[in-house]
Amino acid sequence: MSRTCLSCGEPLFGRSDKKFCNDSCRNNYHHQQNHEQTNLMRNINNALRRNRALLKQLNPDGKTKVRKSQLEKLGFNFKYFTSIYTTRDNRVYYFVYDQGYLPLENDYFALVENADI
After folding, report:
1. What 3-state DSSP class applies to 67?
2. Residue 80 CB contacts under 8 Å (≥ 6 apart), including other chains
3. pLDDT at 117 over 90
4. Pairing relation of β-strands 92-96 and 83-86?
5. Domain that holds residue 52
6. Is 8 contained in some domain?
7. Other CB atoms within 10 Å distance of the CB of residue 52
8. Is residue 49 domain-resident?
9. pLDDT tens-digit profile of 67-99?
């Protein structure tokens, strides 16, 4: 009974528990196994990075107010944020790492920076 590489199918020689013929085949095999999850995480991380960069760009002084349409026009995705902070008076801030926003009336948002992080 001959053993073959899980990635390329070439015959294996050496240790009895060997699964791959070389490091390249091992890397290719695991990359193929995790490809879908990796793409999902990469896309979410890219969206979070983009959201944070937009908030930072629009809020250089640490506190400002912008229209929702301005955020949407720049490509901000409200679906992605890293944490939620609720104040004692039940105002809900959404944070993308250290940059946050608070929905206000008339489609405005207060942008804030959490200096404690």
Report:
1. strand
2. 44, 47, 48, 51, 96
3. no
4. antiparallel
5. 23-113
6. no
7. 18
8. yes
9. 999 999 999 999 999 999 999 999 999 999 999
